């Protein structure tokens, strides 16, 4: 499993609403391609782009979904919103 947990901060929620992006903590050695494939498989969505950032020994993935798939729907299923 590559995805560890969703990030639930005010900034992450703003990204969901305004940029159609989900934010997850992922394993450190995960590639963008692996993250994209896992998100598409688990949530049955299409991913447009994945950006990553390493901060405080954690890897954060910012997953931008395609316009036809609202990130807010996935966030609701996860109980973020």
Structure description:
This protein is of the alpha+beta class and about 80 residues long. It has a single domain (about 5-80), classed as RRM (RNA recognition motif) domain (Alpha-Beta Plaits), CATH 3.30.70.330. Helices cover about 35% and strands about 35% of the residues. It has three helices and four strands, in the order βαβαββα. It has helices spanning about 10-20, 30-45, 70-80; strands spanning about 5, 20-25, 45-55, 60-65. Strands 1-2-4-3 form a four-stranded antiparallel sheet. The longest helix is centred in the middle third of the chain and has 12 residues, at about 30-45. About 15% of the residues are buried.
Per the principal axes of the C-alpha atoms, what is the gross shape?
A: globular
Percent of residues in beta strands: 25-35%
Task: Report strand order across the widest sheet.
Answer: 1-2-4-3
CATH topology: Alpha-Beta Plaits
Average pLDDT for all residues: 95
Number of domains: 1
Q: What level of helicity do the residues show?
A: 25-40%
**What structural class is derived from the secondary structure elements?**
alpha+beta
Number of helices: 3
Assign the CATH architecture.
Answer: 2-Layer Sandwich
Instruction: Give me the strand/helix succession.
Output: EHEHEEH
- Alpha carbon gap, first and last residue: 23 Å
What is Rg?
Answer: 11 Å
Low-pLDDT sequence parts: none
What can be said about the biggest beta sheet? Answer: 4 strands, antiparallel
Tell me the name of the CATH homologous superfamily: RRM (RNA recognition motif) domain
> How many DSSP-defined strands?
4
Task: Kindly provide the name of the CATH class.
Answer: Alpha Beta
């Amino acid at each position: 499993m590559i995805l560890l947990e969703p990030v639930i901060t005010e900034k992450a929620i703003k990204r969901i609403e305004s940029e159609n992006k989900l934010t997850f903590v992922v394993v450190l050695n995960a590639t963008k391609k692996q993250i994209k494939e896992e998100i598409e498989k688990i949530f049955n969505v299409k991913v447009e782009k994945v950006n990553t950032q390493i901060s405080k020994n954690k890897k954060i993935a910012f997953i931008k979904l395609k316009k036809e798939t609202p990130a807010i729907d996935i966030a609701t299923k996860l109980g973020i919103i």
